[in-house]
Amino acid sequence: MQLGDVGNPAAAANGKPLDGVRILAAEQMQALPFATQLLARLGAEVVRVEHPVHGDSGRGALPAVDDPEGRRLGATFLRNNLNKRSVGIDLKHPKGRELFIELAGHFDVVGENFKAGTMDRLGLGYDVLSAAHPGLIYVSVSGFGNLGDSPYRDWPAYAMVPEAMSGLYEYARQGDEPPRVVPAGALGDISSGLFAVIGVMAALRQRDRTGKGQVVDIAMLDAMLAMADVVTNFWSLGKRGNELEVLMNSFQAADGWFAMQVAREHQFEALAELVGHPEWKDDPRFSTRKGWADHCEDVVRPAVTAWAADKTRIEVCDALGGANIPSGPCFTAPEVIEDPHVQMRNMLVEMPRPSGDGDPVLIPGNPVKLSDVAEGPETRVPYVGEHTDEVLAAELGLDDDALAALRDEGVIN
């Protein structure tokens, strides 16, 4: 899917579920930007507020491309900021603070994902904003939350910090190897962003009933505890360690690897038939699920590998699926890009490079599909302060002279 394309165009006349919802986001990196991008895809209008010179820290990530003025557009920023406008305001400047407070009154939601307490220190916390705008919903995403008094409140937190503290890294560690950091992309960020979206929509719904705003407080560690649910749940049920008591492994086919999970007795029996070893059903070594895992390497793997040796991964997974055994190919990045499901579902958006040459930047599409809502059209990520004058003139009525004066003082870009 390219910028400007529309998926499910027959539904375009229906509008989008969050049309009319306005979000002012003092956001950086990924957790909140992922959330606001999803909200924008569902129809919300999102204006991001960032430092007037260098923008948010996600712009500095690598790998990167440059905007037309030679400023970096880092990968973290590129993945999370379609369909937004950018206003460059120095929130540490007294006049920048005043602008933000005044702007907040024109929006339904204010969001921020700085370290806990940062917005309060800037004089832009919920107490200040809600006193001026009582119906405002204030969403905060931080490592350890603003409500309550976490012992880790003052720690900075990128995604890997709550991922580690959730127990996931230690749970997944094999033998004496060190824990593997960031095994699945920014899981801590994206999970926090998803819970932020849920919180915002719930708070909007409650405001419809009560007329009052409130704080939506998302701690990244809380989000990761939910995502890594097996860590504490399994421990409470007496399971120590991470040894599998099912078959959940990767195996080789003729053209690469595939992953397979056999977790129930009928699935193991179906696998035995499929790979030509029906005798496994009566083999005492396989009388328990633990036995399947214990004998994966010496018995099951050689048999599955021999059966799959003359088949492609797709052929293997078709056969396994026909036997009601969950499996999937282990795709490389180029294979993901070319996959027909990914293309059919518009799950990659192509953004042309600002330089105008080279391959497009690929950004994950919207995973929320609604039958009566059109997808897109998507707009490219904004450059730093690209919409400062447009937004401040429209929302606050500032004329060219006022904007020029603020620019001369370094308040805006």
Any idea what the radius of gyration is? 25 Å
- Look at the helices and sheets and give the structural class: alpha/beta
Proportion of residues in helical segments: 25-40%
For the record, the CATH class of the largest domain is Alpha Beta
Query: Per the principal axes of the C-alpha atoms, what is the gross shape?
Result: elongated
- Fold-level CATH name of the largest domain: Rossmann fold
Query: Gap between N and C termini, in Å?
Result: 33 Å
Mean pLDDT: 96
Order of adjacent strands in the largest pleated sheet: 5-2-1-6-7-8
The tally of domains stands at 2
CATH homologous superfamily title of the largest domain:
Crotonobetainyl-coa:carnitine coa-transferase, domain 1
Count of helical regions = 18
Strand proportion, as a percent range, falls in 15-25%
Q: Per CATH, which architecture of the largest domain?
A: 3-Layer(aba) Sandwich
Q: Count the beta strands.
A: 13
- State the major sheet: 6 strands, parallel
Uncertain regions: pLDDT < 50 for 5+ in a row? none
**Oligomeric form of this entry?**
single chain
Q: Could you explain the architecture of this structure?
A:
This protein has two domains: 281 residues, Crotonobetainyl-coa:carnitine coa-transferase, domain 1 (Rossmann fold, 3-Layer(aba) Sandwich), CATH 3.40.50; 84 residues, formyl-coa transferase, domain 3. It is built from 18 helices and 13 strands. Strand 9 and strand 10 form a beta hairpin. The two termini are 33 Å apart. The model has no long low-confidence stretch (mean pLDDT 96).
